[in-house]
Amino acid sequence: MLKDLNCNECQEFLGADPDCTVPEVVNHLSGCDTCRQFQMECQRLDSLLMQALKVDAPSASELMDIDYSDTVVKFPGSDRQPTSNRFIPFAMAASVLLVLAASFLSWQGANEESWAKDIIAHVEHEPGAFAFTAAVPKTKVIQVAQRTGVRVQGDLGEVTYIKACPFRGRMVTHLITQTEKGPVTVLLLPGETVEKPEHIDEEGYVGTVLPFNGGSIVVVGGDAESAQEVQKRMSSSVVWDI
Amino acid sequence: MSDSSNEAAKRRRFEAVVGQYTQDLFRYAFWLSRDRAHSEDVVQESLLRAWKAFDRLNDEGSAKQWLLTIVRRENARVFERKRLQTVDIDNVDQGADESLSVKSNTDVDDVREALMRLEDDYREPLVLQVLMGHSTDEIAKIMAIKPGAVLTRLFRARKKLRAVLESDGVPAFVQE
Fold first, then answer.
1. Whole-model pTM above 0.80?
2. Nearest beta carbon to residue A55 from set B40, B99, B173
């Protein structure tokens, strides 16, 4: 035996789901023009809602363009957890220091190697980036950079590709800028510090990591002259905004 | 099988399972934040999290719900991290946002604007039901609320939308 619904109850069901198939609702609708009219209005609203909600989205391949090699390993100096505990016995601290001293150089070497590998893996992961030749509008360059904590306040030159990419757990600006000798890849990394310029030579790619105001600028590709020109252009045109 | 071929197989499976949902994930993130750039960040970070946790997805049939939950959490996390400013609807220039200006007609524009004005608590279940096709129980799980609360919010959401559209004089909703 179905419970009899009044119009208010029926319309509450339909307002929550215009295609409701609850037997009591179906039963009420069979004998009520007012609620059938209400249902049609809700269905018309839903049809418009569906169109309104379906905003344009980037392509699936663009959205899936993530750094699968991304690891939780942090860049030296960044987000390091404090380790000091003033109650640790001195003897223990001394032995830890000895171990640290013994392993410091190999640790540093391994970390730098991993850093360089991550950069090249990222560049290799977006090979399609070099296919673009048209200049990206400056407004888009500014917007993308801004999303990654980079304020553009000068001329970056002709940028033919720019994207905010996940890199080592952060969103960073990855761009390609044109030089007289061809395209050069740039990663702008606020908050990722290096103490001195680092050279990258991995998998046939050559580049440099330049310390810059507590962050770093990575330039990959081009010859020494064009890389230097791009580094100069970037360092005079961006400030970190984080 | 070597580590690298295992990894490649895992990546192909991930792309097959997850790839079909990415655009809907973007739309869900967009309607949570109403900010296109923020939504792109949220989806990419969510996919990265999903990739890292992919081995823990036992039932691929529940992938969509699993992904929506990740996006929902990531949206809150990114929102908090960036301290994203609340979107002031009066300052939203719909014409300037390509995501809002294409493939639209007057009625759809009006509905979209009304949706932008709707409170988050009402807009989200509507997106999950109308756009994603989720049942009341599924929405309840994603939003971590009771099914009864989902039904109430859906009813009120449509009621509010109809009232806004009527008061704005949208032809399709003006009572004769």
1. no
2. B99
